[in-house]
Write a structure and sequence with these properties.
By secondary structure, this protein is an alpha+beta fold. Helices cover 39% and strands 30% of the residues. The protein has 4 helices and 10 strands. Strands 1-2-3-5-4 form a 5-stranded antiparallel beta sheet, covered by helices on one side. Strands 6-8-9 form a 3-stranded antiparallel beta sheet. A two-stranded antiparallel sheet has the order 7-10. The longest helix has 26 residues.
Amino acid sequence: MINCLSSRHEGDILKVWYRGRAACLKIGQKNHKSTRIEAKVLAYLEGIGGAPKIYALSTHRPAIIMEYLNGVSLQQFYVNASPELRKNIESLVRYKLGQIHFVGYVHCNITASNVIVSHQDGEYDVHILDYGRARPYKEEFADKDVHDVDRMFQGLEWLTRFTKS
């Protein structure tokens, strides 16, 4: 069984079964380099920062089979979470982003839809997705990542106030 998770101009993301387990298949457009960049970054990260782990790659048409991370987008999660839980998740996102920076990459596309919040065995975790715009670490890119995270959480706080009214 195949479910389409997302369809964008750079390609499609499908939930598939790979070697007996749920996986994501990201198929990039032939001339779109973001899937190639993402494959390179994910291979380097090997799960750091909550990034999905790669199971298989295709070089003919850019495609990645990667770990399926079950959860909801940060935006979906944030609206119904308590203020204390939102603060804990915000700290966790910042920590995971710091891990990515520490090993030498900058995400360059942090949005609430590129962060998945999972909940298993009473524990919350976050996973940062979509590394198609990632770049090797440079201070100015890292500063932009941090600024984008600040703006993302400000927007989520505003959204929460707006939807609760």
